[in-house]
Amino acid sequence: MNIKLLRRKALYFLAVIIAFGIITGCASDKKKDKDSDDLVTIDSLEIDEQLIQDVKTVKEIFYSLPSPLETAMILKQAGAKYNEELLNPTENTSRYVTNKSMALNLGIYTTDLSYASLFDQTQATINYMNASKKMAEGLGILNAIDENVIERLEANINNRDVIMDIISETIMNSSSFFEENDRQAMSTIVLVGGWIEGLYIATNLVGPDADFNNNELVNRIIDQKLTLSTVFSLLEENSDNEDVQEVTTNVNELKAIFEKIEITTSKIEPVTDEETNVTTLKSETTISMSTATYNELKEKVKVIRSNYIL
Amino acid sequence: MYKTFYAGQNYRIYICGSDALPDIEFQVLDVNRNVLYDNRKNDYSRLWDFKLESSQQLIISLRVKNSEGETDELISGCVAIMFGIKENKE
User: Fold this and answer.
1) Are A204 and A86 within 8 A, CB to CB?
2) Which end of chain B is more exposed for a tag (fewer CB within 10 A), N or C?
3) Would you call A228 an interface residue with chain B, using a CB distance cutoff of 8 Å?
4) Which site among B26, B58, B74 would you substitute to test the A interface, given the most A Cβ atoms closer than 10 Å to its Cβ?
5) What is the pLDDT of residues A200-225, one digit of tens each?
6) Considering only CB atoms, which chain B residues are within 8 Å of A16?
7) Which domain holds residue B28?
8) Is A161 buried (19+), middle (13-18) or exposed (0-12) by CB count in 10 A?
9) Coil, helix or strand at residue A23
10) Residue B15 lies in a domain
11) Does the beta carbon of A6 lie under 8 angstroms from any beta carbon of chain B?
12) Could you give the ipTM of this predicted complex?
């Protein structure tokens, strides 16, 4: 009886660790009131103390890549224009039959979906939601994308806030599904697919004669050097997966080019406006990039992306 | 959590935690671990609005405060970090 109770209690705590993000120890004046439970309580306390020590020492590190919606917002706010010819045609969905190609193109299509929706391209938004849905279904993400999502999009096609909510919900649900089903490798491949698509759109929207000085779009492309370490950290966490290994090879090719770009940043000084309560992180950055390096980066992104969309 | 934030954007970070949890300590640091924001100096505020003059990779560090005294009970709950970008007016 006591052993059963002990096991149940230990299992409960294990379940708590898996199910919840945070566990913390707190003081309590709880009294033990039943003699028959003494043995269990003492043993459980030993487990608790060990668990508390573990909780105190565990530090978990997360790496966050921009979601497709964030990528599209950053592009738009950097002055990007809409060009549907740059997107992966929705007719291509039948080409993707492997988990890797479906995951990459789920990232690519959700980035295209976000880009189209931010520029109020209603028909393209519906088409890219359909394409994303096909990729999600192929990957077995049941319930990640609402069965009625297309109807909801059509019913709210002139309400951008609702459309953003639907897209955001779709991306978050897909990501959560992978995490909860121990398929983090697929989640990482989806994110890398979306990241490459963002780079592809951005590099193709910068004109051949563009002035690189004070060009916001070029600056956002260069900023991806900062994100590169996050991409690698995510890939390394899933390095035992064969598909991830292939994607890592591509990202390494990009890294070699990004390393030719020099970014120097001064110390950051936070200054808070007392009236608005907004803090400005003041710092100065110097960037050095040759036209040849930019062209090399653009070409490499194009080749990788061509391999992804098949 | 490591995340890249871009120059010229107006960001809001919001920390959301279960009611059962004690105060959540929330810090933002640069890659050299210099503290740029610490909510303990702002009454454990769960939101922070900021913008950057140049793009940076920042670290968002969360810690759930331990209560003082003997520890013999575990409290568990979810914590979420939300990021918002303010859309520029056209």
Assistant:
1) yes
2) C
3) no
4) B74
5) 999 999 988 888 888 999 999 999 99
6) 74, 76
7) 2-66+74-85
8) exposed
9) strand
10) yes
11) no
12) 0.93
Q: Identify all chain B residues contacting A267, using CB atoms and an 8 Å cutoff.
A: 34
Query: Alpha carbon A35 to chain centroid distance?
Result: 52
Of the candidates A193, A185, A196, A190, the one whose C-alpha atom is nearest the C-alpha of residue A172 is A190
Total domains present in chain B: 1
Contact list in A for residue B37 (CB cut-off 8 A) is 270, 279
**Could you say which of A19, A61, A283 has the minimum Cβ distance to residue B54?**
A283
Q: Is residue B10 part of a domain?
A: yes
**Partner B contacted by A171 (CB < 8 A):** no
| DSSP codes, B14-51 | EEEE-TTS-PEEEEEE-TT--EEEEGGGGTT-SEEEEE
Q: Does A158 touch chain B (CB under 8 A)?
A: no
Whole-prediction pTM: 0.84
Task: State the Rg of chain B over Cα.
Answer: 15
Chain A environment of B55 (Cβ under 8 Å):
219-220, 223, 226, 285
**Which structure tokens are listed for B29?**
């640091």
φ, ψ (nearest 5 deg) of residue A261: -90, 130
Kindly report, residue by residue over A28-86, the tens digit of the pLDDT: 333 334 333 333 333 444 445 665 565 555 677 888 888 899 999 999 999 999 999 99
The verdict on residue B90 lying in a domain is: no
- CA nearest neighbour of B62 among B49, B76, B44, B87: B44
Distance CA A144, CA A45 (A): 40
Residue B44 lies inside a defined structural domain of this protein: yes
